[in-house]
From TrEMBL:
<dbReference type="InterPro" id="IPR036179">
    <property type="entry name" value="Ig-like_dom_sf"/>
</dbReference>
<dbReference type="GO" id="GO:0005102">
    <property type="term" value="F:signaling receptor binding"/>
</dbReference>
<dbReference type="InterPro" id="IPR007110">
    <property type="entry name" value="Ig-like_dom"/>
</dbReference>
<dbReference type="GO" id="GO:0050852">
    <property type="term" value="P:T cell receptor signaling pathway"/>
</dbReference>
<feature type="domain" description="Ig-like">
    <location>
        <begin position="22"/>
        <end position="131"/>
    </location>
</feature>
<dbReference type="InterPro" id="IPR003599">
    <property type="entry name" value="Ig_sub"/>
</dbReference>
<dbReference type="GO" id="GO:0001817">
    <property type="term" value="P:regulation of cytokine production"/>
</dbReference>
<dbReference type="InterPro" id="IPR053896">
    <property type="entry name" value="BTN3A2-like_Ig-C"/>
</dbReference>
<keyword id="KW-1015">Disulfide bond</keyword>
<keyword id="KW-0732">Signal</keyword>
<protein>
    <recommendedName>
        <fullName>Ig-like domain-containing protein</fullName>
    </recommendedName>
</protein>
<keyword id="KW-0325">Glycoprotein</keyword>
<feature type="signal peptide">
    <location>
        <begin position="1"/>
        <end position="19"/>
    </location>
</feature>
<dbReference type="InterPro" id="IPR013106">
    <property type="entry name" value="Ig_V-set"/>
</dbReference>
<dbReference type="Pfam" id="PF22705">
    <property type="entry name" value="C2-set_3"/>
</dbReference>
<dbReference type="InterPro" id="IPR013783">
    <property type="entry name" value="Ig-like_fold"/>
</dbReference>
<dbReference type="GO" id="GO:0050863">
    <property type="term" value="P:regulation of T cell activation"/>
</dbReference>
């Protein structure tokens, strides 16, 4: 009876530990590259292999990596992360269960949670915020019409966050006429195109 009560209390108290972190650690990485989201066991119980569940807030299904009984378990894994997530297997025995995400996409940005479940039922959760950045070389083009007017266009394809651009004249004045910002959806990168029209070929 005493044992039973203790067990129930133990479950309740360990559930209490599972709360969102108000200031998660932030990791910034570039689209197309890899990111390492840090997570470590606070106390290393040497002979006990914990279950490690990495999940992403708002994703369905939300599991991006599940490690159980010493192996990756695939059933619950989100397909968008297939072949893209792994632990550093040599580091796991040292209590390092950091997650590697490869070939980052802009939509991978968000809050991830590392949940460690011990054999004895104790749980430790850590949140990590992943920020995905993207840049490319802006392209400049120049077109003139029959009236000798010249349109200068500058396009920055797939940036995260959106770039701040300005077309300026010799004196540094902002002469931008039009600004177009495209984003496929909230999780994708920004493509920004700006133009300026000037009256003469000799303007700089
Ligand atoms: C479970 O084990 C870990 C490490 O071995 C220890 O820190 C923790 O206090 C234990 N939790 C319970 C509820 O016994
Ligand atoms: C965990 O392992 C990774 C990969 O080797 C390394 O980059 C990271 O610094 C390690 N973290 C800790 C806390 O040792
Ligand atoms: C430059 O002018 C454009 C068009 O009027 C405007 O949208 C943009 O915010 C300006 N840029 C700066 C840095 O003031």
């Amino acid at each position: 009876m005493y044992f039973c009560l203790y067990f129930v209390l133990g479950l309740l108290s360990s559930k209490g530990c599972f709360s969102a972190d108000p200031n998660p650690e932030k990791v910034v990485a570039f689209a197309g590259e890899n990111a390492i989201l840090p997570c470590s066991l606070k106390t290393s119980g040497s002979d006990d292999l914990p279950t490690v569940e990495w999940s992403k807030e708002g994703l369905k299904p939300n599991v991006v990596f599940l490690y159980r009984n010493g192996f990756e378990t695939f059933e619950m894994k989100n397909q968008g992360f297939e072949f893209r997530t792994s632990l550093f297997m040599r580091e796991v025995k040292n209590g390092n269960v950091s997650l590697r995400i490869s070939n980052l996409k802009p939509s991978d940005a968000g809050i991830y949670q590392c949940l460690i479940i011990r054999r004895n039922g104790s749980r430790e959760a850590t949140d990590v915020q992943l920020v995905v950045a993207a840049v490319s070389d802006p392209k400049l083009s120049v077109d003139s019409d029959e009236n000798q007017r010249v349109t200068v266009a500058c396009e920055a394809t797939c940036w995260l966050p959106a770039p701040l651009m300005e077309i300026v004249d010799e004196k540094g004045n902002n002469i931008t006429d039009t600004v177009e910002i495209q984003r496929a959806d909230l999780t994708e990168c920004y493509t920004v195109r700006q133009t300026a029209t000037v009256q003469s070929h000799t303007a700089r």
